[in-house]
Amino acid sequence: MKDPASDNRHKIDPRYTRFRLRLGYSRIHRWGVYAGEFIPKRRKVIEYTGQKINRQETKRRAEGDLNYLFTLDDYWTLDGAVDGSGAEFINHSCEPNCRAMVFKGHILYMAVRDIQPGEELTVDYQFQPDVPKVRCICGSHRCRGTINLAPKKKARRPAPG
Predict the structure, then answer these.
(1) 139: phi > 0 → left, psi -120 to 50 → alpha, else beta; which?
(2) Model pTM?
(3) 3-state secondary structure at position 63
């Protein structure tokens, strides 16, 4: 596999992170992002950036085999493949060390626990249950087998009595 750091489109943009991060081969999927230093929990790790596209363009781009689309709200999506910060290479895990948070129109990846140098950064993609299932290979002890969330169970009504 080609080293992603040798390609200008594959890089971590230091303007969007407060920590040293690097790209490297991932056992989860293709390339991943790794901590270059200790990252304390509850700290912003990196901002997800990319071209802002509407629902119609999102649908068109989502038809591809590999995409870096992140839903911002009901209308807008960011395409990390265009002007991405490098956060688009953070892989999914069912037991992640980061979480995504939308704050004032920005997508921030926050550390949910202390992250050690050399550790791969992961986030739960939380694909909705109604979209086509995507197999998960994160390797976590809590792996649910899919990147999709489980369907919500309907609340049971008590029997009349």
Answers:
(1) left
(2) 0.85
(3) coil
